[in-house]
Design brief:
The complex is a heterodimer. Chain A is mainly alpha-helical. Chain A has one domain: dinb family like domain (Four Helix Bundle (Hemerythrin (Met), subunit A), Up-down Bundle), CATH 1.20.120. Chain A is built from seven helices and two strands, in the order ααααααββα. Chain B is mainly alpha-helical. Chain B folds into two domains: about 35 residues; about 120 residues, Four Helix Bundle (Hemerythrin (Met), subunit A). Helix content of chain B is about 80%, strand content about 0%. In chain B, helix 2 packs across helix 3 and helix 3 packs parallel to helix 5. The N terminus of chain B is likely disordered. The chains are: A mainly alpha, B mainly alpha. The interface between A and B is small, with 10 and 7 residues.
Chain lengths: ~180, ~160
């Protein structure tokens, strides 16, 4: 049985618009579909094509963005675990800029960043697969707001769509594609 | 020293300019009489491009803009040239069929893109909304042009 769409009050208010863009009424299906699309888009790229690619001075490099997706999902996956296991302690927030700065993604090979993204997504999916009946609607306190398990799972999907739009519209046109023969 | 490709480019530019000057000196009617088939082909190519641009603009804009007014004006001028052709009835049908074929191709592309987008995004997502609107406009225009093909109307 699917998760159903989260209702207002099950996720951070600032994510409402992005969550409204996530297709379907099942978090697991949304996350699996996204994984396939993102891997189809990013796996064929290489370090030569992505190194140094950003869309404006001071903005994250493409490698930072994809590494951020994995970091963010690890934290939200942990939050899902805590809430699904009935941990009543309030969970702390995190500073995504500090995490990205410390991650050193630009020094990592592209293939390792992409495979890390896939591993984290697969771990999220197996976590969701094993949820006991009724757990989708369990609630906890996360970064100062109330959230349900399905709200957190939709948050992951919505957050990824948000960055995927930026990847496709801002980063993609600036990739270092190899010059064509005779070009 | 100039390369051969540079000399070819200059020669092409001069030839294009000469053609443009000769065409500009003619009225639409004179141009049409000079070479009716060439005129039909040229008008068909330009109208096809403009019809697709008009639909794309209408799909994304809530009000008329300088771009959409410019496209409308160009379409109207080409339609005037079409009506000036000696056998304008069959010319209109030929052009309508070419535009229809381009709209059919665009519809196939839009349907595929929408199917792909809808696996991840809801219809409230602006890109999906615009693509869906474009698909509606393409279908509405195809219906109009089929009516022209049936001899019920002219290119508007």
């Amino acid at each position: 049985m699917g998760s159903g769409r989260p209702l207002p009050g099950e996720f951070a208010v600032y994510m409402a618009d992005d969550i409204a863009y996530v297709a379907g009424d099942d978090a697991r299906t949304a996350l699996a579909t996204q994984r396939d699309s993102v891997l189809a888009l990013l796996s064929p790229l290489t370090d030569d094509v992505v190194d140094g690619v950003t869309y404006a001075p001071g903005k994250w490099m493409l490698k930072d963005v994809v590494a951020h997706l994995a970091d963010d999902e690890r934290i939200f996956g942990y939050r899902i675990l805590c809430v699904a296991r009935r941990d009543t302690r309030a969970l702390e927030g995190f500073d995504e800029r500090q995490y990205a700065d410390a991650a050193g993604a630009t020094q990592r090979p592209w293939a390792s960043i992409v495979s890390d993204y896939a591993a984290v997504r697969n771990a999220t999916l197996t976590l969701l697969d094993g949820l006991p009946h009724g757990a989708w609607q369990y609630r906890g306190i996360v970064n100062g707001y109330e959230a349900s398990v399905r709200g957190l799972a939709f948050h992951i999907a919505a957050h990824e769509l948000h960055h995927l739009r930026a990847i496709e519209t801002l980063y993609w046109p600036r990739l270092n594609f190899a010059p064509t023969l005779g070009g | 020293m100039r390369s051969r490709s540079a000399r070819t480019s200059v020669a092409l530019a001069v030839a294009t300019l000469a053609t443009a000057i000769a065409c500009a000196a003619r009225t639409p009617h004179e141009s049409a009489i000079a070479s009716p088939q060439a005129s039909v082909d040229s008008i068909a190519v330009q109208l096809t491009d403009l019809e697709l641009r008009r639909i794309a603009l209408r799909a994304t804009e809530t009000a008329q803009t300088p771009s959409s007014r410019d496209v409308e004006q160009q379409i109207a001028q080409l339609q005037e040239q079409l009506r000036a052709l000696p056998s304008h009835g069959s010319a209109e049908r030929t052009v309508a069929q070419r535009v229809l074929a381009a709209l059919d191709a665009r519809d196939v592309a839009l349907t595929a893109r929408l199917r792909e987008m809808r696996t991840m995004y809801t219809d409230t997502y602006p890109v999906v909304r615009d693509l869906a609107r474009e698909e509606q406009l393409v279908n509405a225009r195809r219906t109009e042009l089929r009516a022209i093909g049936d001899g019920r109307d002219g290119v508007r």
